Amino acid sequence: MVSVLLGAVVLAGCGPSGSGGSDDAPPRGSAEPAASTGTGAGPAASPAPSTGTGPSAVPAPADTLVRVTRSGGFAGETHTLVVKGDGSWSRLDGKAQPEGTGKLSEQELTALRTALREADFARLPRIATGGPKIYDGFFHTFAHGGYEVAGEQGSLPPALERVADALPPFTAR
Q1: Quick one: the chain helix, strand, coil %, rounded to 5?
Q2: How many other β-carbons are positioned within 10 Å of the β-carbon of residue 13?
Q3: Average pLDDT for the chain
Q4: What angle do CA 86, 162, 5 make, to 5 degrees?
Q5: What 3-state DSSP class applies to 148?
Q6: pLDDT band of 55, cuts 50, 70, 90
Q7: What's the gap between Cα 55 and its chain centre?
Q8: In 10 A of CB 160, how many CB atoms?
Q9: How far is CA 127 from the centre of its chain?
Q10: CA 84 to each of CA 1, 65, 87: distance values in angstroms, whole numbers, following the listed order
C-alpha cells in the first residue's frame, strides 16, 4: 500500500508529455481514485519542477517523455526514472532525491519512443492485474502522454514490459 501511495505522490506532478512527437497521447486525468493510508498523514512533499532558472535533476512535467516508478523487490526500495523528450534522464530515490543522470543514445531513444507508442497508453487498463503473484517482485507506475498505468511485476502487459526494457537502469550498476 505504501508503494502505491508513494508512486501516486511521485506521479502527481507529472503532466502531459512535451516532446512534440507523434507518439504523444492527448492529456487525460487518471480514472483511479486517490489512495489513502488511513493514517491521516498528508502526501510527502515532492521537489519543485525545473523552471529553467537553475540546474535541477527533476525536469519540468512539460519536458517529460515518460516517468516510471519502480518499488518493492527484495530490498523494498523505490526508484523513479524521468526521461525527457531529448533522451536525457534522471534517476530519483524514494525521497525524490537525485541518484544519477544520463542520456539515451539516439537508438535507445527511438526504441523507447517506439515502445511507448506501441503500448497505446490510452487503451491500457489503469491497473494491470491477472498475472501470477511474484513475491518480492516490483510494482511499476508509468506516466506518459497524460495517462498513468500501474501494475505488479508479472501482471504488466507485454507492451509495458517493452517500455520497461527500453528504460535506463533503475539502480546504479
Answers
A1: 20, 25, 55
A2: 17
A3: 71
A4: 80
A5: strand
A6: very low
A7: 21
A8: 22
A9: 14
A10: 28, 5, 5
